[in-house]
Amino acid sequence: xxxxxxxxxxxxxxxxxxxxxxxxxxxxxxxxxxxxxxxxxxxxxxxxxxxxxxxxxxxxxxxxxxxxxxxxxxxxxxxxxxxxxxxxxxxxxxxxxxxxxxxxxxxxxxxxxxxxxxxxxxxxxxxxxxxxxxxxxxxxxxxxxxxxxxxxxxxxxxxxxxxxxxxxxxxxxxxxxxxxxxxxxxxxxxxxxxxxxxxxxxxxxxxxxxxxxxxxxxxxxxxxxxxxxxxxxxxxxxxxxxxxxxxxxxxxxxxxxxxxxxxxxxxxxxxxxxxxxxxxxxxxxxxxxxxxxxxxxxxxxxxxxxxxxxxxxxxxxxxxxxxxxxxxxxxxxxxxxxxxxxxxxxxxxxxxxxxxxxxxxxxxxxxxxxxxxxxxxxxxxxxxxxxxxxxxxxxxxxxxxxxx
Length: 404
What we know:
By secondary structure, the protein is of the alpha/beta class. Helices cover 40% and strands 13% of the residues. The chain has 15 helices and eleven strands. The strands form two sheets. Strands 9-8-7-6-5-4-3-10-11 form a nine-stranded mixed beta sheet. A two-stranded antiparallel sheet has the order 1-2. Helix 6 (154-162) packs across helix 8 (188-201). The longest helix is centred in the N-terminal third of the chain and has 18 residues, at 16-33.
């Protein structure tokens, strides 16, 4: 057992006003979406999972809760996914050591961030993973592991249960051939389904990641339906960002019409399933949700912005690369510090300064004229490009109507 040497994190109910805010946030989300009452109640009554999912949450944003930390603890991976932003494959030579990782976890605890995600590459290929999970848990972190799922044997699932780890698994198709094609290894589909079944057998918190591209668009609803049957608690629907290895398949990126269809699909499925669905790299979702409800009042939208924060980059996410470099988002390769060289509180300040820097981009200025800016703000990975925003025409019409 690793001795606890760092600062303990506050429990989920402290401070009480933050817990109350999370309750209001969940209710607002359900009401605004028109979430079917029975499905919503089945989800919200899973209290243990609800506490796990919302650890320290101040907002729901396009990458989940605000704030949280994701550490890409290794580049090593047993798959060769065509959309991998991290170029997963071989381990990088300069990955943080176990001692450096423990020091990192200590520093994150000092920021009062309560949710810690171990990812990769494939984190289960790193030998000290469970030692580091045990240490993070000893400080009070709510811990998740983001994995391709293919290495979750029955014994691994039992270890994850022992340490009460939330499991995030990538699944990109219910068609085995298509999933294997996307994941770059034959047999990946059968292996991930076995891993999922092992998680279910141990009653683990289960979350599915789906990368939405032209290649697998017709599979998204099927995956969500599968998750609803097996009892998934949450989903991330990643709008494919052509970054990393994904630059080689840029043609699979969703166009504006495809993106709008994705938002419609998410809204439709969210109303009926017993899990929460969060689109990633799609802060426009929150604006689209309000527009569908006919909400245009600026004061009300600004109030709702306290609960739904749009783009999380520069606001409440810290993404740490294997060598300790820190980015604001896994799809935004802007270096804001290195945990080996700088104090974590200074890096946290740099992240917020990055948000101010992006406020001066062409697309950000365009977003600032939108009535939904407070709940969206545009995706910072596209700030110098065409945002493919479904509101561009709506914005122009609104500005004319308001005499802008």
